[in-house]
Design a protein that fits this description.
This protein has helices spanning 21-30, 34-47, 52-59, 63-76. With 94 residues, it is an all-alpha fold. It is globular, with a radius of gyration of 15 Å.
């Protein structure tokens, strides 16, 4: 029985969108919503060589969630990382 293990590393394709790792950091610092800041900063950290597991551990997020952020960014661009409220009762306090 042979088990193949992928050694392909998760990577952020920021150059596809005409951006840089530093631009992701700037977007993290300037994003309006804390969840958007978290997502941009996670991608910045992965661009710097951290794994999804490391970023997940540091942020309290599941590594699979972090990987999904990377895949969505690579497919769609920065719009995929901007937090949008997805329903439920409106917040009582803003």
């Amino acid at each position: 029985m042979v088990i193949e293990v992928s050694t392909r590393m998760l990577s952020v394709d920021w150059s596809r969108w005409g951006e840089s790792a530093e631009a992701l950091r700037e977007k993290a610092l300037k994003a309006e919503h804390p969840r958007s800041r978290e997502r941009f900063m996670a991608l910045y950290e992965i661009s710097g060589g951290k794994s999804a597991t490391q970023v997940g551990r540091e942020t309290g997020r599941n590594p699979q969630t972090v990987m999904e952020w990377v895949h969505r960014y690579n497919a769609v661009g920065q719009e995929a990382l901007v937090y949008q409220r997805s329903g439920g009762h409106p917040p009582l306090y803003l």
